[in-house]
Amino acid sequence: MRVVSLVAHVPYSGIPHAGGQYALAHLRVLRGRGHEVTVIAPDWRGNGDNARLLREELGVDVIVCSPRASGRVADWWDTQQIRLFPVRPPRRFRRAVLDSPPAGSALSRAELIDAQWSEMGWLALHARTIRPGVRRVVTAHDVIAQTYDRVLARTVRGTPARLLGRWRRWSVARDEGRLYREMDAVVVFSEKDARYVSALSRDAARTVVLRPPFDGGVRASDPAPPDGPPTVLFVGAFFRDVNAQAAEWLIDEILPLVRAARPDVRFLLGGAGPTARMEEAAARDPLLEVTGEVPSLDPSYAEATVVVVPLRMGAGLKFKTVEAMMRGIPVVSTSVGAEGLVEEGETGGLTVQDDAPGMAAALLRVLEDPPAAWREAAAGREWARSVFSSETFPARLEDALLGDGVLR
Asked: Which pLDDT score, from 0 to 100, does residue 406 have?
C-alpha cells in the first residue's frame, strides 16, 4: 500500500524527544510490513538534516518542502500566526507542502495519508483536493486544547494575556474539532485523550486508542534499587518549554524541601537542551547533575532510586512516565505527568502530587525505604509491559490506521 506520512519532525534514531521516537517506531512498522512509504515534512526544526538520517535508516523517500519566503519578517509573521492559530502550521509552510510538485505527486498516488501530530493533520485536511476520497488518519500526540485549558487557568483575570488566552483556547477548540471531525480516524494514546477528542469533535466513532510501544528499547531493571547514592531522576527534552519549566520548578521548590530532610540526595536531570538556569544550578550544587544530550538514557535510569515527573503544563500521555514504570522504578508525578495512566490500569509505584510539599514528601517516602517502594512498583511494571508491548504493536497500529484489515 502507498502511504504518505506528513510529519512535523522528521524522526531518526536518537531523536531527543518522545514524539519523534514514536513517529520513528510508527514508520518502522509500516516499512517492516512492506508498505511503500513517502515522508513529507516542512523545512523547519532541522528537518533537512534529519531527512538524510531517515533515508539512510529506513530507505524511504523523504520530501522536505521549503517555503519561498524567508528572513526575520517571515519568522515574525510565523510567530504571530502560531500565537493566534496554534493548531495550524504557518501559512508559508502550508503552501510549501501543498504547492510542492514532488509532494503533490506523492499525495496524488497515496492510498493512505498518515499525519503525525495535529498540526500535520491540518495539512491533511487540504490533501483531498489533490487526492479525492483518500483515507486520512491523524495521530494526535497531544490534544492541544488541553494545554490551552491549563494555560488559561494560570493566567491572571482581567489582563491582556487573559484575553489572548481565551482567544487561543477558543481557536484551538474550533480548529481541533474541525480537524477531528473531518479525519477518517483519530489515533490517540489514552482513553482520557479519546474522551477529549470525542468531546471536541462531537463524534466518538472515529477515535482509536493505540498504546505506543515501549519495551523494545527498554531494558528490564533489577528488582531492587541500585547501589550508590540515593538518586532522583527527571528526564526530558529540555528545549521544550514544558520540560524546562518543570526542571526549574524542581530545582527551585522541590529540591530544597527534599534536601532539608535528606542532604545526601542526588538529583539527576537527563536529556538534551538544558537551560542556562539548570546548568548554573548544577555548577553550584555538587549533588545536582545535568547531563545534556547523551546517546542513551539507560545509564541514568540505572542510577535512579526514584523518577520524578514534575510537569505542570502540556497534554497527552507522558512517555517518560511509562518508560520509568516499565523499568520498575517508582515514580512521583504531578497529575499532568500521570494523565492517561491513572484510572486506566495498574499504577503500583506511581504516586501523584501537585504541589511542591506533596512532591517532596512523596520522594522522601520512597527514599526512606527504597526496597519497599520497588516491590510496590513491580505490579505497575507488569501492567505497563502488557499494555505497551512492542510485540503486538504492529498489528495494533494497522488496525488503528484502517481498522478493516486492508493494510494486512
From this structure: 40
Taking each continuous run of H as one helix and of E as one strand, the counts in the chain are 18, 13
Fold annotation for 231-387: Rossmann fold (3.40.50)
CATH topology of domain 2-213+390-401: Rossmann fold (3.40.50)
* Same fold for the pair 2-213+390-401 and 231-387: yes
Cα angle 19, 99, 170 (rounded to 5 degrees) comes to: 55
Q: Which residues of 177-193 are buried (b: 16+ CB within 10 A; e: fewer)?
A: bebbeebbbbbbbbebb
- Cell numbers that stand for 125 in this block: 485536511
For residue 280, give the C-alpha cell. Answer: 548554573
What is the 8-class DSSP label of residue 7? E
> 345 falls in which pLDDT band (50, 70, 90)?
low
CB atoms closer than 10 angstroms to residue 336: 23
First to last CA, the chain: 9
Task: Give the Å distances, CA to CA, from 310 to 307, 322, 354.
Answer: 10, 14, 8
Residue ranges per structural domain of the chain? 2-213+390-401, 231-387
**Residues sharing a CB contact under 8 Å with residue 172, sequence separation 6 or more, in sequence order:** 86, 87, 144, 145, 148
pTM (2 d.p.): 0.78
